[in-house]
Amino acid sequence: MTRYLIKRLAGVIVLAFGISVVVFLIIRLVPGNPAISILGTNAGNPALVARLENQLGLNQPITTQYVKWIGGVLQANFGYSYDQQLPVATLIADNLGPTLELTLFALVLTVVFGLILGVTAALKRNSAYDTVSMGTALTFLSLPSFWLGLVLLVIFAVQLHWFAVVGGSGFKGLVLPAVTLALGGIGFTARFVRSSVIEALRQQHVVTSRAKGLSRSAVLVKHVIRNSLLPVFTIVGLQTGNLLSGAVIIETVFSRPGLGRLLVNAILAKDYETVQAVVLVIALMYALVNFVVDILYPVLDPRIAYR
Amino acid sequence: MTVEIAGQPAADGLAVAVPARTRVRQAMRHNSLRAGVVIVVVIAVLVLAAPLLTSVNPDTQNPAQTFLPPSPHHLMGTDSFGRDLFSRVLHGGQYTLGASALVVLIGGTIGTLLGVIAGYFGGAVGYLVMRFVDLLLAFPGILLALAVAAILGPGLLNGVFAVAVVLVPAYARVMEGATVEVRHLPYVDAAVGLGSGAWHVIWRHVIPGIRSNVIVMTTSWLGIAALWIAALGFIGLGVQPPTPEWGAILNDGENYLTIAWWISVFPGIFLALFVVGVNLIGDGLRDELDPALNRF
Amino acid sequence: MRFRIRRLPAAAALVAVTLIATACASSTAGASGGQASTSATLTVGWAEPPDTLNPATTGARDVGPIDVNVFDTLVWLTPTLKATPDLATKWSVSPDGKTYTFTLRHGVKFQDGTPFNAQSVVANVDYITAKSTQSTIALGLLGPCTTATATSAYTVAFHCAKPYAPLLDQLGEPYLGIQSPAAIARYGKNLGEHLVGTGPFKFVSYTPNQSVVLARNPAYDWAPPAVGQNGPSKIAKIVFNIVTNSQARVGSLQSGQSQLVQETPGVYYKSLASSYSELADPISGMGIFAPINASTFPTNDLAVRQAIMYAINKKSVIQLADSGVFPAQDTPFSQGMLGYDSSLANMYPYDPAKATQLLTADGWSKTGGTWTKDGKKLALTITAISTVPEYPLIAQAIQSSLQAVGMQVSVVQQAEPAWLASNLAGNMSLTPLQYIGVDPDALHLWFTPGQYYNWSHYTNPQLTKLIDEGQVTTDQSARAKIYEQAQQLIMQEAVDLPLHLNEDLLVYSKSLTGVTYSGGGFEYFYKAALS
């Protein structure tokens, strides 16, 4: 177990290193010179451009730049955003909370509603209810979230005044963005859970239990639900990535602060250090969630051994 | 909205023997498959027949006819430039559908090849390929697409490449697993034992063996590709104006929802329907190609 | 000034002036009516996320209006661009035009309690010009006047390397707002999160991408005389909510969450006029325009550039891009700027036949509906910043105007860094943008050799000479004459395509009165009242 943990943790660290290299290179390939963007009206003066490139370290060999950056990151110094003129650490601190709040709430909605929809559909499979709920799940999965967000915003906030149009403060401001973000995940989870429950129902021991005369609900609780919880864990791992991706667009549509919006703006402005740090943080969050899920698997299901 | 399909073992090497036409006929008995095919075919026909269905140029502006609601004259109304949305949505479908097909073709081919190579040869090659795949999978999909799109600059083809990059690791991961399974099937072992070359075995046995995985993956990713192409268009990293790609039209209408809902509602419906159709086909095919999950 | 500056909305300049007059009048009325609440919070739907709130280092237009409420400047620029006393009560210019001496107001205190004096001004100039300060707009506004010395406790002298006429007006822009020297010393790079000025509102908080909160400065007792009001502000608190999506911004007004929104899309500005108060805040400078690239084929050909000027139907462009709310602009400078010359307005009327005639005379011929010359097609590229909604719209509208006369046009949307790079390299034929300024010396940046913003890639010794003269001429009428001649030349050479007035379309609740702006178009809420 300990050996497995160490091995997996080492994997995460190697992955983090790989991610840092990839993101470092990718952002440098985006066209445009940050020194010129910063200088604005004064960029006509080549001496000023050169001075700033020097200040930003842009004229050093790329390996030196990387070592300098990663060295800073290891000492918790994420650098300075020239576009927002704030330390990147401050930006992340300001934006991490709202993103976590949004994705966690959306994750809860995803799992709860996905489970309800999926289990009930599986139990009544091939009925009209099954068709309707799976049709709904599929529709959720197929709606473009950026568009859906605005439609919901106009209907529920602008027309009906149920929620705030602007602002991320409080539960009321969180509902619409989280629901928009969660719908796709609910659709996916419902479909996934439905087939795992059907699979579980078909398992020999369930059939046997039923034959032994255990009541339907007892069997359901004892075997089926427990067995279908495993896939739910897989889903939590998968959905975390999707929700973080989705947050990029949802935060923009709903004018919410957050890592996603911070990142999109930083990519568009070619704000090196912000992009590098935010991508690293998001990828690490994603990797850690999957790490925890992997650790919990064998705990929940003794049949799975640590490899 | 990523749908990731867990690696499924190739179900039936023997299925190859069943005549294709019979299989299609059997498959079409499946309700969701039938519904999906109908939806996708109807949309595809509408989109391909756009020049026959409307004689209006999708890019022609008319300052006197801006923001007109749907009417017999403009079935889907007009946008802020007075352009006819019926024409734009139908013509625009060619870009959205074409781009998503291209995404799947490019990303799927490269990803499958990588997966097959890693799975078949294993060893150091397989290890390196799969660690690279893990690395790419560590980035939430749309972020990777965004970054690549930012590097390449706007443009439909660039958008296609950006989304295709995301598909590569997803395909590679699944195909690697499937290839490992197929590689150890008796008849493949036999072919190797008889001294067939690696590429020959891959082409004649492995690829046919993982065919159903490829089909299922492709139907799932086609819908996602359409949504992501539209999302890039929406962020301004997709097609260049005035190309009527659906995401770009949604973007055009974004700021006018309360006064001209029709600008973004019609392309939104078309896009959602297309994705629903593709997913229904995927569901049907999965059931048909993976009998283990079937008839329950 | 940078172009993160977004779109702006409109109405005729005359209408605007009338509205301002009404706004000012009604604010007084509101106050005397006794209905105005002294504990009111004004919530504003703001369009653009600030790069930083630090006036010395920001590059964004939309930070100016936030800063103008927190900081005072040495001079107060009236909406009609007249420099009047503010922190400086009087000033003089040396005969050689190289030294400006300001006498400062007594009894002014920064919001952190630091007293304001000549040393404070010197500390600000030192800060802006320091090598470690990432200054853009502010440094540019100082021009060659990069040193200041305290000649007594309350007099300060600005020294210029060469005569620099624009300085006085430019000292009235919020980017040269005077910050507390104690705050500068204490916060350094993080100054943008700790604004300390002497203005009517003090800084409370800034949450990037979310909101900026200001509160009344109860000690405020030194309003510029030209503003016509004294004492602390009537509004207790201002919340600027950053709402980039314009539909959501307008929605926040309609749902009552905001009392004022800016950068209203034209179509809403029109449709909301009956139920809300509106103000088309005129932003001075060069309006919304497009430099035409004179160094790359096919726009290196004068006939082509002039044909473009004739072929564009501005009225239709404005109708398509902005529902027709903006008045067209036909001269390099917008109305109200020194050197504005209305006689230039009729130089290029919309006349597609004239465009055809010019091209034909120049040896172009139409084959297959497109103009060609020596086997090469007349194909143009219009670049537009993808993140600012208005520019791609304008680009598409221009595209259709030009296609109508047989030119091939492609529109290329780009994110800002890529857009800057392609303009700098000259990889475009024209690009719509705005330039904001209070002094005609703006031409220096756009049309003299070697300048970053010479995106027309055009040089002309005669023009350069005129612009250089304008910079050192102190006599106002002589200066105006020089800029008239310079604009004449620019228009003849067709390197600047003026499009429409640059206005920030404000829509606000009828319970809000007294919304006004400082010279240059920076929204100013000192006189605002909510009933």
Short account of what is shown:
The complex is a heterotrimer of chains A (307), B (296) and C (531). Chain A is mainly alpha-helical and 307 residues long.
Low-confidence stretches of chain B: 1-17, 292-296
Oligomer: heterotrimer
* Percentage of residues assigned to helices of chain C: 25-40%
Number of strand elements of chain B: 0
* Relative strand content of chain C: 15-25%
Estimate what percentage of residues of chain B fall within beta strands. under 5%
Structural class, judged by helices and strands of chain C? Answer: alpha+beta
Which of globular, elongated, flat, extended, rod-shaped describes the shape of chain B? elongated
Distance between the termini of chain C: 37 Å
**Residue-averaged pLDDT of chain B, rounded?**
85
Order of helices and strands of chain B: HHHHHHHHHHHH
- Alpha-beta content class of chain B: mainly alpha
Topology (SSEs and partners):
The complex is a heterotrimer of chains A (307), B (296) and C (531).
Chain A: H1 2-29, H2 34-39, H3 46-56, H4 62-74, E1 80-81, E2 86-87, H5 88-123, H6 128-142, H7 145-159, H8 170-202, H9 204-211, H10 216-253, H11 259-269, H12 272-300
Antiparallel strand pairs in A: 1-2
Helix pairs in contact in A: 1-12, 5-6, 5-8, 5-10, 6-8, 7-8, 7-10, 8-10, 9-10, 10-11, 10-12, 11-12
Chain B: H1 20-28, H2 31-48, H3 50-53, H4 85-121, H5 123-137, H6 141-152, H7 156-183, H8 186-193, H9 198-209, H10 211-235, H11 246-254, H12 262-289
Chain C: H1 13-32, E1 41-46, H2 64-67, E2 75-77, E3 83-85, E4 88-93, E5 99-104, H3 118-129, H4 137-142, E6 147-152, E7 155-159, H5 167-170, H6 181-187, E8 201-207, E9 211-216, E10 237-242, H7 246-254, E11 260-261, H8 266-271, E12 277-282, E13 285-291, H9 302-311, H10 314-322, H11 352-361, E14 365-367, E15 370-373, E16 376-377, E17 379-385, H12 390-404, E18 408-414, H13 416-425, E19 433-436, H14 442-447, H15 461-472, H16 476-492, E20 496-500, E21 503-508, E22 512-513, E23 516-518, E24 522-524, E25 529-530
Parallel strand pairs in C: 1-10, 1-11, 17-18
Antiparallel strand pairs in C: 2-3, 4-5, 5-7, 6-7, 8-9, 9-10, 11-21, 12-21, 13-19, 13-20, 14-15, 15-16, 22-25, 23-24
